[in-house]
Specification:
Length: 267
């Protein structure tokens, strides 16, 4: 290049280099710090950062004069907050100077890693006791899933290792939640859910006979379980319905054996 009758040599920069390229991995929620350097240029290279065709502002620059006191190296650092990056995005570092006005590019791909994101579904619905039910544990993970673990009521189901658990359900699934734990290289995510199993009335405690004095109150308790919720109907043998409650109090006016029974009905 000639200036005022004198010739000055210009040297294009070496190919720019992004530290960590071609793929930079970081955990979800962490900010991104990129560094790009373009060496051996005269004059010193200018560096810009580009994403989706748009120049990114806010980068920091430094220049270092090399031993020959002619060429220079340029280093640029770019900071992006976690909310300003997405996995799979490509960011370009472009270095140029007078000897290379169109510039040279280096490209890095962003890889955001995260714990498994898990959803636990149950089919079919509604769930009836005695029916075959499929639990499916769908997960999105980066790095990929390496292990599934199933449990019921806190007890590991060792015979199942994949993303699907098939079983004939009984009433115990109503009170013992099913859980799926999904693991990748970063750690594990556990999700559980109670199963709304429909089942008929079951006696929770045997009824107890009472001996009471004439003129005293007799208190009868009834303990049944069922889903949907139960309506408890008290009946006096030979008479019919005497109450629709869980506990019934009767005033005894005659002293002789009388049988009362509680009949549960699914609502």
């Amino acid at each position: 290049m000639q200036i005022n009758g004198l010739w000055y040599s210009t040297v294009p920069p070496d190919d720019p280099v992004i530290v960590g390229a071609p793929v930079v991995s970081l955990r979800a929620g962490d900010p991104l710090n990129l560094t790009c350097h373009a060496d051996n240029a005269k004059p010193a290279a200018s560096i810009i950062w580009i994403r989706n065709g748009q120049v990114l502002n806010g980068a920091m620059f430094s220049k270092t004069l090399l031993r020959d006191e002619r060429r220079e190296s340029t280093v640029s650092s770019l900071y992006l907050s976690a909310s300003n990056i997405e996995t799979g995005q490509q960011i370009t570092c472009r270095a140029s100077n007078k000897a290379l006005p169109n510039g040279k590019d280096a490209i890095v791909t962003i890889d955001i890693q995260h714990l498994p994101l898990v959803n636990l579904s149950v089919e079919p619905q509604p769930i009836l006791e005695g029916n075959l039910v499929k639990f499916h544990c769908s997960a999105k993970a980066n790095p990929p899933v390496i292990h599934y673990r199933w449990a019921k009521g806190g007890s590991v189901i060792r015979q199942v290792s994949g993303d699907t658990y098939e079983v004939i359900v009984d009433h115990s699934f109503f009170t013992e939640p099913v859980s799926c734990e999904v693991t990748n290289a970063l750690g594990s995510t556990n999700i559980s859910r109670n199963v709304d199993v429909y089942y008929g009335p079951r006696m929770a405690a045997e009824p107890q006979s009472l001996q009471v004095d004439q003129g005293s109150d007799a208190i009868f308790n009834c303990a049944w379980t069922g889903n949907p919720s139960l309506t408890i109907v008290w009946m006096k043998r030979g008479s019919g319905v005497v109450g629709i409650v869980i506990t019934i109090i009767l005033f005894i006016v005659l002293v002789f054996p009388v049988a009362y029974c509680a009949r549960p009905i699914n609502s």
